[in-house]
C-alpha cells in the first residue's frame, strides 16, 4: 500500500511558472452602485496563494510573489491534489484559525520553520485554504468570464468537496447591508476588512482593480526614533511598553507630511546615554516590507513623546505589520501608561 508520502509525491514535486494574481487598491468606504453591482468578501489575514492542478495532476501551490508553497503548506497542496479536478486553478488565502481568531503569527512560524518541520507542523498548526476565485476549470480558461459566473462555477465545484476539509469556500455576498455587518463585527476574529469586486468584472492577472476597505482604529504609541533629519523627520519608529516594563518596537509611520514634520521636530529630543533599542533594527522589524533584508537605520530619541496613530488590524506578535499613519502628538499622555495590549493566547 502506498504511504501518504508516496501518494502525494506528484503533488509536491510538480513545478510550473508563477501566475500573477489580481490585487486590490484601498478605498475609504463602500463604493456606490445599484444592488448587485458589487460583490463583497471578508479580507482574511493570511498568505495569498494560487493552487494549480495541471492536466497530469501535478500541483503547484504558489505565493502572491510566485514563491513555492508546496513544501511549506503540504496539507494545502495535498488537498488540491485529492479534491480538485485536473486543469483547475484556484485563487485564495491560506489562513490559520486558532481560538476563534485568524493567527498570522502561526503562518509566519510555518513559513520560516523549513521543509523538514513542515509535515509535523501541518498536524500541530494546520491551515485552511479559503478559495474565492477560479481561473481555470477542467482545462478551460474562465478568466474572461464575469465574476458572478466564476463564483457560480466555484460554488458548484465545492459541492463535491467536504466542508470540514483543508479547502474552504470563501464567504461572498452581493448584499451591501450584510457586507457592512461583516465589516463592523468580524474584526474581532482578526478579519482585516472587506475586498470589493465588480460583479461583472473579469480576472485580469496582475491588475489592481479590486477594492479593499480596511478596518482601522486609533492607538497611542511612544516615539523611540526617527528617520531623516531632526529638523525634517520623514518617519517615526514607534514603541510600547510590555507588561515587564520593556519598551518594544511595534511599528513605524508612513512618510510624514511637511506639516507633521514641522509639528514634531521641536518635540523630539536626541537620546543621550543608554537607549532601550539598538542603533540599527533588524530586518523585518518596525512594519518593514515583507522579505526586506537590510537593517533599519534611524536616529534614537528620548522615549518621552506619545503620538496618536491610525492603524489597521494586522499585527504579528504585538507589532503592526503595515505602516501606521501619524495623526497628532499627545503631549498630555505619560509614556509609562502606553502599554501594549496583546490578544489572549488560544
Automatic annotation (TrEMBL):
Reactions catalysed: ATP + (deoxyribonucleotide)n-3'-hydroxyl + 5'-phospho-(deoxyribonucleotide)m = (deoxyribonucleotide)n+m + AMP + diphosphate
Keyword Ligase among UniProt keywords: yes
UniProt region (Disordered), positions on chain: 1-28
Domain ATP-dependent DNA ligase family profile: 120-224
PANTHER family per record: DNA LIGASE 1 (PTHR45674:SF4), DNA LIGASE 1/3 FAMILY MEMBER (PTHR45674)
Family membership noted in the UniProt record: Belongs to the ATP-dependent DNA ligase family.
Protein name: ATP-dependent DNA ligase
Source organism of this protein record: Nonomuraea maheshkhaliensis
Phylogenetic placement of the source organism: Bacteria, Bacillati, Actinomycetota, Actinomycetes, Streptosporangiales
Amino acid at each position: 500500500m502506498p504511504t501518504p508520502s508516496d501518494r502525494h509525491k506528484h503533488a509536491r514535486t510538480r513545478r510550473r511558472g508563477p501566475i500573477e494574481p489580481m490585487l486590490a487598491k484601498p478605498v475609504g468606504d463602500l463604493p456606490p452602485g445599484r444592488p448587485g453591482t458589487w460583490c463583497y468578501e471578508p479580507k482574511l489575514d493570511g498568505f495569498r496563494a494560487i493552487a494549480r492542478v495541471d492536466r497530469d495532476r501535478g500541483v503547484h501551490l504558489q505565493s502572491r510573489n510566485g514563491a513555492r508553497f508546496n513544501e511549506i503548506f503540504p496539507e494545502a497542496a495535498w488537498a488540491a491534489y485529492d479534491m480538485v479536478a485536473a486543469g483547475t486553478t484556484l485563487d485564495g488565502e491560506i489562513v490559520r484559525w486558532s481560538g476563534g481568531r485568524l493567527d498570522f503569527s502561526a503562518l509566519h512560524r510555518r513559513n520560516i520553520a523549513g521543509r523538514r518541520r513542515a509535515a509535523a507542523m501541518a498536524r500541530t498548526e494546520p491551515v485552511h485554504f479559503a478559495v474565492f476565485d477560479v481561473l481555470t476549470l477542467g482545462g478551460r480558461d474562465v478568466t474572461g468570464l464575469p465574476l458572478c459566473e466564476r463564483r457560480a462555477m466555484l460554488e458548484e465545484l465545492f459541492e463535491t468537496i467536504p466542508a470540514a476539509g483543508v479547502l474552504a469556500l470563501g464567504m461572498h455576498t452581493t448584499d451591501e447591508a450584510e457586507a457592512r455587518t461583516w465589516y463592523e463585527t468580524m474584526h474581532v476574529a482578526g478579519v482585516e476588512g472587506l475586498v470589493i469586486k465588480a460583479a461583472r468584472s473579469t480576472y485580469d492577472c496582475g491588475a489592481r482593480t479590486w477594492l479593499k476597505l480596511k478596518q482601522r482604529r486609533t492607538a497611542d504609541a511612544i516615539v523611540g526614533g526617527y528617520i531623516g533629519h531632526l529638523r525634517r523627520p520623514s518617519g517615526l519608529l514607534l514603541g510600547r511598553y510590555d507588561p515587564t516594563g520593556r519598551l518594544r518596537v511595534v511599528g513605524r509611520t508612513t512618510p510624514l507630511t511637511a506639516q507633521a514634520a514641522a509639528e514634531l521636530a521641536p518635540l523630539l529630543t536626541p537620546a543621550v546615554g543608554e537607549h532601550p533599542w539598538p542603533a540599527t533594527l533588524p530586518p523585518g522589524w518596525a512594519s518593514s516590507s515583507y522579505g526586506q533584508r537590510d537593517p533599519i537605520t534611524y536616529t534614537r530619541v528620548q522615549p518621552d513623546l506619545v503620538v496618536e496613530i491610525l492603524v489597521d488590524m494586522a499585527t504579528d506578535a504585538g507589532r503592526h505589520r503595515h505602516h501606521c499613519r501619524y495623526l497628532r502628538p499627545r503631549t498630555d499622555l505619560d509614556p509609562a501608561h502606553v502599554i501594549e495590549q496583546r490578544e489572549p493566547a488560544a
